[in-house]
Design brief:
mainly beta, rod-shaped, Jelly Rolls, 378 residues, 30 strands, 50% strand, 6-stranded mixed β-sheet, 1 helix, 6-stranded antiparallel β-sheet
């Protein structure tokens, strides 16, 4: 046997150990067995590890491609291709002559790890794009929900509107730190801080609001408050009277002159900035109808009956003026008490002063009392 014949026989034996065929099925293996899948035209088998490699040598310009096609001899059909183009990534595309199969970019896996569905250059780790429509949605379903476009959870874009929705008759939860922070139940009630909302908005916790409060689209008018109507709808109504706008001052004057402005001592003042009490004046900054009470006690030592005048005055306007003759109690001692109660409308920023005067006082006189007031109505 010649050397050439020996080499040929050895090659045949080697190939027969690796390449086998059966009914047009090809098997590539290291065991020498026939293909086990009768439907497979090509079967690759290697115990422990099998690998098929499609390679090009120009890593900056070449394309490696695996193509699946059902095209006929005439050329009509659909191709599904897996391509590695240059060093950009792995692309799954299709090309078809059939009207139902027109997508030209199904999926892309870029070398930076970004995955695109419907887009060749995904901008994020997962980027979904619908080039032929103005809506793009991601759907999540399971073995309970069904699998139609009316089932499960959808997340996506419809035109310029973002959509997130549970299409099932169940709740939609939002959370952080492994805790539910907000929830929309199947009836449309939303809970914040609670998972069992009983109303359209049910908040368990504090609420802080800035801006305008509206009721049925209206803000009410200045000074109105939101009033409960029991089980009926609330409404805007006038604020109730604030009983905090009230004050009381006292005075005690030993006077030998004929007249003067009384010095005031504050007993209490709940009016805040609405009522400001000075040393001898009361400034009322909140306009309204006020009720006033004035209590006076006068005593004097005089040879004749003294005459006392006192009045409540705002600059040149006198609100109250009285002149009385003091009663004699015994000898040259004169004493008397008076109480005046009246309602008075006071415009804003008015200064009130208590004035007193004495006539026919020959020795000693003293005037004591208190002056109080409170807001009745604005």
């Amino acid at each position: 046997m010649t050397a050439m014949k020996r080499i040929f026989i050895i090659l045949v034996l080697l190939v027969s150990n690796v390449l086998t065929s059966k009914a047009q099925s090809v098997g590539i293996n290291s065991t020498g067995t026939a293909p086990t899948d009768t439907k497979a035209m090509l079967e690759v088998l290697k115990p422990g590890f099998s690998k098929i490699k499609i390679r090009t040598e120009n890593n900056s310009a070449d394309t490696s491609m695996l193509e699946f096609t059902n095209r006929k001899v005439s050329g009509a059909g659909t191709d599904f291709r897996m391509s590695m183009i240059s060093q950009d990534g792995l692309f799954f595309t299709s090309a078809s002559d059939m009207a139902a199969n027109t997508n030209d970019s199904l999926m892309a896996i870029r070398v930076n790890g970004n995955i695109g569905m419907g887009i060749k250059n995904p901008a994020y780790k997962l980027h979904l794009h619908t080039p032929s429509s103005n809506n793009s949605f991601l759907s999540f379903t399971n073995n309970i929900t069904g699998t139609t476009n009316q089932d499960g959870l959808v997340l996506g874009m419809l035109g310029t509107s973002a959509r997130l929705g549970n299409l099932e008759a169940g709740e939609l939860r939002f959370g952080t730190s492994n805790l539910t922070r907000a929830l929309i139940d199947a009836s449309g009630n939303m809970g914040i801080g609670t998972t069992v909302p009983a109303y359209k908005l049910d908040v368990a916790g504090d609420i802080n609001m800035t801006g305008t409060l509206r009721l049925n689209g209206t803000t009410g008018t200045a000074g109105q408050v939101l009033t409960s109507n029991g089980i009926g709808a609330p409404s805007w109504s006038e604020a109730p009277l604030r009983n905090s706008d009230r004050f009381n001052v006292t005075f005690s004057e030993i006077i030998s002159s004929t007249s003067g402005t009384l010095s005031l001592t504050t007993d209490y003042n709940f009016g805040g900035a609405d009522i400001v009490i000075g040393a001898n004046s009361i400034t009322i900054n909140k306009a309204g109808l006020y009720h006033f009470d004035l209590f006076l006690h006068y005593s004097a030592l005089s040879a004749t009956s003294p005459v006392v005048t006192f009045y409540l005055q705002n600059t040149a306007v006198t609100f109250l003026w009285q002149e009385v003759v003091v009663k004699k109690t015994s000898g040259d001692i004169y004493k008397d008490n008076w109480h005046y109660s009246f309602d008075l409308y006071v415009p804003a920023a008015r200064i009130l002063r208590l004035q007193s005067g004495f006539v026919d006082v020959t020795s000693f006189s003293q005037l004591q009392g208190n002056f109080s007031g409170h807001l009745i109505s604005e």
